[in-house]
Each structure stands twice: as structure tokens, then as C-alpha cells.
Specification:
single chain, alpha/beta, seven-stranded mixed β-sheet, 11 helices, about 25% strand, binds zinc ion, metal-binding, ER, zinc, ADH_Zn_CS
Length: about 350
């Protein structure tokens, strides 16, 4: 099969012909029909993820068709259209048994712990626990855009952030994660403030549901601005970018008993940011993480997509070919444009 391969961290990836994957006993092989471009792939390529063994094939936001299934797979057969969360649970550990596959102790991640989906085929472990069937009407490109950023935002807003109708939600950073969160929080009836450095992204945030926007490049005190708009602070706030300053602002702009959810990755020098712990205590703030979403929780999200409350297809950006993927991957270190880039030609 053809695949995007890098032999060394930070060196230009190339298109190579490599052996087709085989399914594990409980796993499947999926013919990739669409795979999203994500900043996590860029972090992996740069060597920021210690799970990666070289040479490596990146890619973890995928949708496609099952073409082979291991002998222990009972729920899936060839020809089925599927997607999969980026954190693949083992189905057997304590966390999986308690329904928290997204933090499985033995999780595998395509494109990190194993070869990923910037390729014609990808192998996925523990298929019975992790595959998600696609509705007939859903395009592969839309389905691929769900796997990482959209589901992480869904869990961050609904399950971790516990946002309820009428609450104020502040979303710091309007890339793929942030825009997904704005759409989801608006759909469940929250009042959403979008915060970013560019007016273009803020205009788009308003189109998909934000009731207020703050351009952080033109606002000397973002925390004060959020508190003014919300009459005292956000009930829930999210750092969708992953930067010490957005993380700090997201905690500092909360009202009493507010919830901060960290979704933007904090790696390298950013891994230990400052936290206003005085406020965390005095205001009884909650600080939460959010790491993907379990396959069984997709159903609620899929119903909101089916009824038109959520429109993830609006977040699909440029469609490119596998040949264009190496250059696009290397460019992910810069600021993202609007929408999630997706490889749709292999
Ligand atoms: Zn597990
Ligand atoms: Zn991703």
C-alpha cells in the first residue's frame, strides 16, 4: 500500500510503498476513505510523543470501510462503513470496564502507538469495543473530522464540562477544537463567547453560534472582557488552543464554582503552565482534562448530527490527496486556517 512515512523526527516525510497491514485476532483492517490533518500529527512528527517508534506512518482521524476482520471479531464484517475514536480502548482494564475507554490503561492510538491512517489501509485493535458505524448519509470526510477534535469537544462540553442551557461558556482558541466546541455548546443552549487572535475565525465562530467574540490581539485584558460580557465570569471555559496564556485566562475568567476544561495539548516547555491556584480554592473552581470520547458515546452526538442540531460538515476545510499530505503535515506547526483539512484521495 501507499503511505506517508517518516524515518526521522522533523525530517521531510515521503510517500512509500509498504506492506499492507494484517488484522489482529480482535482487530480489523480499514480501507481509509478519509483522514483528517491534526496538530497532534505535527507534534508526533516533531518527536514530542514518546510512544512513536520509527519509521512511522501518522494519521488518527479516519473513516473508511472494513476490508478484513480477525477471527475473534463478532460485531463487524467486511464492507461496513466505520470510524473510530483516536484513543482505542482494550475493553478489559479497570477504566474500560467502568466505561472510560478514552483513558484506557492499555490504549492504542493509530498514528502514535502504531501506524496510522495517512495510508491506503490501517489496522485497528479491539474492533468490537471501538468501531462506530457511520450513518448512510454521512460523508467519509465529515466522519473523519469527528474522530479527534469534534468528539473531544463533545466530551469536553457535555460530559466533562457539564454545560447546561443558559450558562456562559468561554472558548479560548478557534481552531478545529474550538469551533467544534462553540457549535456543540451553542446547540445545547449555552451562551458562547469565542476568543481568538483573528477576526476571520471570530466571524466564522459567530456564524456557527457564538453570541459574543473577543479578539485577544486587540483586547488588553481578556479575563476582564469575559467577566464584563458574562456579568461576573463564565460558568464553563475551555482552552482549545493549548498555551500557558490561554490556559491561565480560561481558569481566571471563571465565575465562582466554574469549570475549566483543558483540551489543547500542552507539550514540551508548555507542559507545566501557571495555575491561579488561589482562585481555584477561593472560588471552588474545577480543573478538568478531556481526552477523546468512548465509542459508545458517539450515539448521542450522531443523533444531534442526524437531526441537524450539529453540522460537523461545516468544519471540513480543504480536501487534499495523500501526495499533498507530507507538505500539509509539516505546515501544521503554524496557525491553522478555518476548518479541518482532510485527505480524501489515496
Ligand atoms: Zn482498557
Ligand atoms: Zn487529532
Amino acid at each position: 500500500m501507499r503511505a506517508v512515512v517518516f524515518e526521522k523526527f522533523g525530517e521531510v516525510p515521503t510517500i512509500q510503498t509498504v506492506p499492507d497491514p494484517e488484522p489482529a485476532l480482535g482487530g480489523v483492517v480499514i480501507k481509509v476513505e478519509a483522514t483528517g490533518l491534526c496538530r497532534s500529527d505535527w507534534h508526533g512528527w516533531m518527536g514530542h510523543d514518546d510512544g512513536i517508534r520509527l519509521p512511522h506512518v501518522p494519521g488518527h482521524e479516519l473513516a473508511g470501510v472494513v476490508v478484513a476482520a480477525g477471527s475473534q471479531v463478532t460485531r463487524w464484517k467486511t464492507g461496513e462503513r466505520v470510524t473510530v475514536p483516536f484513543a482505542v480502548g482494550c475493553g478489559r482494564c479497570f477504566e474500560c470496564s467502568s466505561g472510560n475507554h478514552q483513558v484506557c490503561e492499555h490504549q492504542t492510538q493509530p498514528g502514535f502507538t502504531a501506524w496510522g491512517s495517512f495510508a491506503e489501509y490501517v489496522a485497528i485493535d479491539h474492533a468490537d469495543t471501538n468501531l462506530v458505524r457511520l450513518p448512510d448519509e454521512m460523508e467519509f470526510a465529515t466522519a473523519a473530522s469527528l474522530g479527534c477534535r469534534f468528539v473531544t469537544s463533545f466530551r469536553a462540553i457535555v460530559d466533562q464540562g457539564r454545560v447546561t442551557p443558559g450558562e456562559w461558556v468561554a472558548v479560548h482558541g478557534c481552531g478545529g477544537v474550538g469551533l467544534s466546541a462553540i457549535m456543540i455548546a451553542s446547540a445545547i443552549g449555552a451562551n458562547v463567547i469565542a476568543i481568538d487572535l483573528t477576526d476571520e475565525k471570530l466571524d466564522f465562530a459567530s456564524k456557527i453560534g457564538a453570541v459574543a467574540t473577543i479578539n485577544a490581539a486587540k483586547t488588553p485584558n481578556v479575563v476582564k472582557a469575559v467577566k464584563q460580557i458574562t456579568n461576573g465570569g463564565a460558568h464553563m471555559s475551555m482552552d482549545a488552543l493549548g498555551h500557558p496564556s490561554t490556559s491561565f485566562n480560561s481558569i481566571a475568567n471563571l465565575r465562582r464554582r466554574g469549570r475549566h476544561v483543558q483540551v489543547g495539548l500542552m507539550l514540551g516547555d508548555h507542559a507545566r503552565p501557571q495555575v491561579p491556584m488561589d482562585k481555584v480554592i477561593a472560588f471552588e473552581l474545577e480543573i478538568l482534562g478531556s481526552h477523546g470520547m468512548q465509542a459508545y458515546r458517539y450515539q448521542a452526538m450522531m443523533e444531534m448530527i442526524r437531526t441537524g442540531k450539529l453540522k460537523p460538515e461545516l468544519l471540513v476545510g480543504k480536501r487534499i490527496s495523500l501526495d499533498e499530505a507530507p507538505a500539509a503535515l509539516m505546515a501544521m506547526g503554524g496557525f491553522e486556517g478555518i476548518g479541518i483539512g482532510v485527505v480524501t484521495k489515496f
